[in-house]
């Protein structure tokens, strides 16, 4: 079979394999992998029948000749690997967070622009059908501009990632902790809906998760939008039994609510009227990633821009770093006297 795209997946941990499975499911791409561990490389290559299974990036560029790559390696390696690929003329979808520092981020942006490449960051919540429907509705401003955005989310992280103690999550230096691993998704989604975060205050702590010391609970308040005229609030914990993501977006003449666990979004603009409710069939855990794969291939074909561009991902990285700085400064909360 002849494919228009040759997609290289770099890193075959759980998220790399998910990207591999979902890009393969599009039927639009020849798939290859880059994985340093021989046994893992062999296992994944056999499971998915990839065209090439390479041990390092140089071999992968030479043998697989990728037209695009998904960088799903540990977060500290994202930008160095992306630079190598961009300099070879490869389109890029980079896992979140874009990095853990700003080092070489502007250089990557410049190379992508100079080479005319498509590049994005894999903030998959922009492809959730509820989020996408509500964002599209709000973008047309039927209720006027957004005034306030509130996100409340939590889940039992050990249930979904039982090995959390032994992977990157256990150390901020490898991209771990609730801020860089989980809250970053919500911050990025909130910026898509209500504009870039300009100022923030934050508090975070380790409340419950056993076997780690990184934060598992975060509260952030924001001023966002181009004019900093939207007030925001984001809260997340990683130990409650219920897996839920709830949004409330209050506008000048109405409100939109998103309840992911109930598979619905709602709108209301009349105090005397009932909510207008929009429901969707329950999505599976690959739904967002399959939509993201299709969307990014469309972007490479210049049918539409990526929903989360490289510049968008860099903006959210700056927000991540600001949250960490606010928490670590010890000045995020004022004493009540």
Automatic annotation (TrEMBL):
Cross-referenced Pfam families: GFO_IDH_MocA, GFO_IDH_MocA_C3
Keywords per UniProt: Oxidoreductase
Domain Gfo/Idh/MocA-like oxidoreductase N-terminal: 6-123
Residue ranges constituting the GFO/IDH/MocA-like oxidoreductase domain according to the UniProt record: 132-256
EC number: 1.1.1.312
GO molecular function, one term: 4-carboxy-2-hydroxymuconate semialdehyde hemiacetal dehydrogenase activity
Protein known as: 4-carboxy-2-hydroxymuconate-6-semialdehyde dehydrogenase
Gene name, Swiss-Prot/TrEMBL: ligC_2
């Amino acid at each position: 079979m002849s494919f228009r795209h040759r997609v290289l997946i770099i890193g075959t941990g759980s998220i790399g394999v998910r990207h591999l499975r979902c890009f393969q499911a599009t039927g639009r791409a020849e798939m290859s992998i880059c994985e340093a561990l021989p046994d893992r490389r062999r296992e994944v290559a056999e499971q998915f029948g990839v065209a090439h299974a390479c041990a390092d990036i140089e071999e992968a560029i030479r043998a697989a000749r990728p037209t695009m790559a998904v960088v799903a390696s540990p977060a500290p390696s994202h930008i160095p690997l992306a630079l190598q690929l961009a300099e070879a003329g490869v389109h890029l979808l980079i896992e979140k967070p874009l990095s853990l520092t700003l080092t070489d981020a502007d250089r990557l942006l410049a190379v992508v622009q100079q080479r005319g490449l498509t590049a994005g960051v894999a903030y998959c919540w922009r492809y959730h059908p509820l989020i996408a429907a509500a964002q599209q509705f709000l973008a047309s401003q039927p209720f006027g501009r957004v005034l306030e955005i509130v996100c409340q989310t939590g889940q039992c992280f050990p249930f979904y990632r039982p090995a959390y103690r032994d992977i990157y999550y256990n150390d901020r230096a490898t991209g771990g902790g609730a801020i860089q691993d989980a809250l970053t998704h919500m911050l990025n989604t909130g910026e898509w809906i209500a504009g870039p975060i300009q100022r923030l205050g934050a508090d975070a702590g380790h409340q419950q998760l056993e076997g780690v010391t990184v934060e598992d609970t975060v509260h952030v308040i924001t001023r966002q939008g181009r004019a900093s005229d939207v007030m925001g609030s984001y809260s997340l914990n990683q130990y409650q039994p219920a897996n839920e993501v709830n949004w409330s977006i209050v506008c000048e003449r109405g409100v939109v609510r998103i309840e992911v666990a109930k598979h619905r979004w709602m709108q209301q603009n009349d105090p005397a009227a009932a909510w207008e409710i929009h429901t969707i069939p329950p999505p599976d855990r690959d739904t967002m990633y399959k939509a993201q794969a299709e969307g990014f291939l469309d972007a490479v074909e210049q049918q539409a821009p990526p929903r989360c561009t490289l510049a968008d991902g860099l903006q959210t990285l700056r927000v991540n770093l600001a949250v960490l700085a606010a928490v670590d400064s010890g000045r995020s909360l004022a004493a009540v006297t």
